[in-house]
Specification:
By secondary structure, this protein is mainly α. Helices cover 49% and strands 6% of the residues.
Length: 358
């Protein structure tokens, strides 16, 4: 392989030694390779100053109307499929589910800009996390951690059918949103999604480390606030800790090398308004919305299924403790909701407590 403009990324991926062309050194090149990308967000506000409601409004305003219409269609179809036992029960908070898809579409759009800046352009817009196809036979080989609806859906597929393993498949959309990072319970849609090339890959579309590392930075710091992992916005200063501890990348030297360049480029591109400027968001001091509570109960339901690997067990234990801390607040939050005239929220919270055995 010929060297890139700035040499190579070199190192193991946990098993094999890899070498990938490095086309950008952020310290030298900045975002010059994405100079053709337009500024899509204003960046005049002070850092950490824009309230979440206004911030979300700005994000949605940059999503085309036909994409928003498709999201609404996916949700309606998913609700019908759930009634027929071919999709997961829809999330309790429809607004947050839709917001999750908006963030995922925006992530795919922004990723194209980041990869341009990295010197490795890829067509991620309208594709990454949304429309990624895998042969049905590969899904059938991953049914070891699944609910009955998922088993029935996957079993109905032809081996040679191309199946969308992204958010825009109405069979999988609700399950993907509800999963968050509950890696040790029933996986359902996430087991299908992991076959995409920016996770594990598959025979027809092998693992692609450039896109995987870029995806990692956004989702695992995480930069997006309460996105697919149901976690608050993290800071770029946390990157090295995340690289050293997160099981998705800690054993991959080449993944970590790429991720460092990506993080620096994301920081610059946020400042330029070419991707979502998460640095401007005023992170709410205390968030306890319905989707976060629902996710906490999902994590807590896996308490009798701890992972065998001690390193994974430590990470899982921290996640489980966070979930239990959220659940401990739910009875009081239900009372507050009822007193504040939000009886429907109180009812949902109490239903979760009852079904969870609390």
């Amino acid at each position: 392989m010929s060297p890139g403009l700035r040499g190579y990324y070199e190192g193991t991926d946990g098993k094999n030694v890899l070498r990938i062309a490095r086309n950008c050194d952020p310290a030298i090149d900045g975002t010059s390779l994405a100079a053709h990308r337009p500024r899509i967000f204003d960046t005049d506000d002070e850092p950490d100053s824009v309230p979440i409601e206004e911030f979300d409004r700005r994000i949605e305003a940059r999503v085309p109307a036909h994409v928003l219409a498709r999201m609404d269609s996916v949700m309606r179809s998913a609700e019908l499929l759930a009634q027929r036992g071919l999709a997961d029960t829809p999330p309790l908070d429809r607004y947050e589910w839709r917001r999750g898809m908006i963030l995922s579409w925006s992530h795919a759009r922004d990723l194209a800009t980041v990869l341009d800046a990295l010197g490795h352009p890829r067509p991620t817009v309208d594709r990454h996390d949304l429309d990624e196809v895998v042969l049905g036979k590969h899904l059938k080989g991953r049914l070891g951690s699944a609910d009955q609806w998922y088993i029935d859906y996957v079993s109905s597929l032809d081996d040679g059918a191309w199946v969308n393993v992204g958010f825009f498949n109405p069979h999988l959309s609700a399950s993907m949103f509800k999963w968050g990072d509950a890696r040790h319970g029933k996986q359902n849609a996430m087991d299908a999604h992991r076959l995409s090339s920016h996770h594990l890959g598959n025979p027809e579309a092998p693992l692609e480390w450039i896109e995987r590392a870029a995806n990692f930075v956004v989702h695992h710091i995480p930069r997006e606030h309460y996105g697919i992992r149901h976690e608050p916005r993290g800071e770029f200063s946390q990157l090295e800790h995340v690289l050293a501890t997160d099981t998705a990348i800690k054993d991959s030297e080449i993944g970590k090398a790429i991720a460092r360049d990506v993080a620096r480029l994301c920081e610059l591109l946020e400042q330029e308004g070419k991707i979502i400027p998460w640095n401007l968001l005023k992170v709410p001091a205390d968030t306890l919305n319905v989707s976060l509570v629902e996710h906490a109960f999902l994590v807590a339901s896996t308490a009798d299924l701890p992972p065998a690997d001690p390193i994974d067990a430590d990470e899982y234990q921290r996640q489980l403790e966070r979930a239990k801390a959220v659940i401990a607040r739910v009875p009081l939050e239900a009372e507050k909701a009822e007193a504040g005239g939000r009886g429907e929220i109180a009812t949902v919270f109490r239903k979760l407590l009852r079904e969870g055995g609390y």
